[in-house]
Amino acid sequence: MSTLPPLPAAPEIDTDDAAPVRPRGRAAARLLPPARLTGPIPWVIAILIALVVIAAAGGLALRNLANSASTGLSSAVSVQVIEPNPDLRAARGAEAAEVLLGIEGVSAVRVVPEAELVAMLEPWLGEGAGSGDVPIPALIDVELSRSVGPADVARIEAALVGKVPGARVDAQGDFLRPVNDALAALQWLALGLAVLVALATSAAVWLAARNAFASARDTVEIMHLLGASQRQITAVFLRDVLREAAAGALMGAGLGVAATWLLGQQFAALGSGMVSGGGLMLADWLVIASIPLGGVLLALVTSRITIAYALKAML
Amino acid sequence: MDDALAGHVKFDNVGLRYGTEPEVLSNLSFTLYPGSFYFLTGASGAGKTSLLKMLYLAQRPSRGAIRMFGQDLVTMPQSRLPELRRRLGVVFQNFRLVPYLTAFDNVALPLRLAGTEEKKVQRAVGDMLDWVGLSHRAHAVPPTMSGGEQQRVAIARAVIARPRLLIADEPTGNVDPDMALKLLRLFEALNNRVGTTVVVATHDVHLLKKVPDSQIMRLHKGQLSDPTGALRYPPLPAGSGSPGA
């Protein structure tokens, strides 16, 4: 600098507002220091995503379980004919079946054979269930062409009254109502957990983005004063947030799916007919697959809002 | 709007206060003409840095009006300020280089932020580093550079995009008198050859005499005076015959 050479030719600068102003690739990577959300944030995101995956898988399995239990029962009615005399009971059962077949909307009627009833009761009553000492009612399964409502039950009762003494009508779905209510409560609980964990994820990302911004504040200020737009600065931050959130979400999803699969195996081993109805379908797995994507999106939106607020404080 | 008028920076009865504190700058009214060279002087605490902050768009005034390049800064939305900032070059008092970027990448910042093609960036930054005599230090990061070298990187960064207005805050504060004079000659060259309006804040009275065509703005307790008459009359831009020519 002892002698001053002529100033070099001016570079061509694109001053068009519509020109791409977002630095891309390596140019963007050169603007801010790497690894903005360093520390435990990817791990925190991983744990939270795993929890959401497990909660969501539980909720979906419970929904399938409730649906599977309700299917077939919703349009079914049981008619019991209570009569201690076996011959009279059999006659009244047959008479009830005949009456039932004549009712509008009834699509099928089946008198459950006594041997079948005895076999069903044996686990509770022991081998004496079929001895005749314990009176077993005649049981008739009635299938309606639509879901059973209270009006249908009343209609069937009205048709049987007077013609079949001792007949009692129950909608089969009523037996499972308390179970369904409990399953619905558990589904809401799973949804609540997923929402709470999503909020916790947002809070964690918000804190991390705020800290990352604070630690890069000097650099951001310099870039800002050199003419960087809010969009440019945000884009550079979001690149790193995206990378770290994606890594965390992938780890979390892997962990959550593994835990779900293991739990599924445990329940499947129970061999219970009802529990086996709680398996996950393809659509459920698609919902679960969308959770890490949602987590990354949530992290990006949270970071974007956080950075926008921080930048707003600068002129 | 006429180009000469659009190039003006015009302060009209501007005041600045931080929070509820008394005003640090009061009733500032002046115009900076295109291609002129201004010194801003005043004792420490007189408000030089606050005035410069408003000039390089880091601070809005508490009252009054500022127009820059034909735009009203007070009412301009925040989203349009970057576009205006790209027409400014700023040499900060403590350089404010990005510590983890090389000298090359620091100088390239204004061009990359403006979306300039990388091939052009490479050529322009290479030329600029040649100009300030730092080609051999292109890959050095600021913490490994001397004060004078960092100063030159800061200047190269400030002038690489050929700003219409160059603002320098105590640019000679950290260098020896010989280097200070060299830096001043660099600003003069930019002023004379490119027509950039230059504002240099300094408390070094010896520097003021080194640029014969310069105007002096003096700040005292937040008030401005103009010993050279720069604020009362349009000064003649260096090297031209009429204001704003």
Gist of the model:
The complex is a heterodimer of chains A (315) and B (245). By secondary structure, chain A is of the alpha+beta class.
Oligomer classification: heterodimer
Instruction: Give the structural class of chain A.
Output: alpha+beta
The biggest sheet of chain A, with number of strands, parallel, antiparallel or mixed sense and barrel status, is: 4 strands, antiparallel
Can you tell me the residue ranges of chain B where pLDDT is under 50 for at least 5 consecutive residues? 232-245
What is the 3D form of chain B?
globular
Q: Topology as H/E string of chain B?
A: HEEEHEEHEHHHEHEHEE
N-to-C span of chain B: 14 Å
**How many strand elements of chain B?**
10
Structural class by SSE content of chain B: alpha/beta
| Average of per-residue pLDDT values of chain B | 83
Radius of gyration computed on alpha carbons of chain A? 34 Å
Tell me roughly what share of residues is in helical segments of chain A.
Answer: 55-70%
Architecture overview:
The complex is a heterodimer of chains A (315) and B (245). In chain A, 64% of the residues lie in helices and 8% in strands. Chain A has ten helices and four strands; from the N terminus they run ααβαβαβαβααααα. Chain B has 245 residues and is an alpha/beta fold. Chain B is built from eight helices and ten strands. In chain B, a hairpin with a 2-residue loop joins strand 9 and strand 10. The longest helix of chain B has 18 residues. The two termini of chain B are 14 Å apart. The C terminus of chain B is likely disordered. The chains are: A alpha+beta (315), B alpha/beta (245). The interface between A and B is large, with 40 and 54 residues.
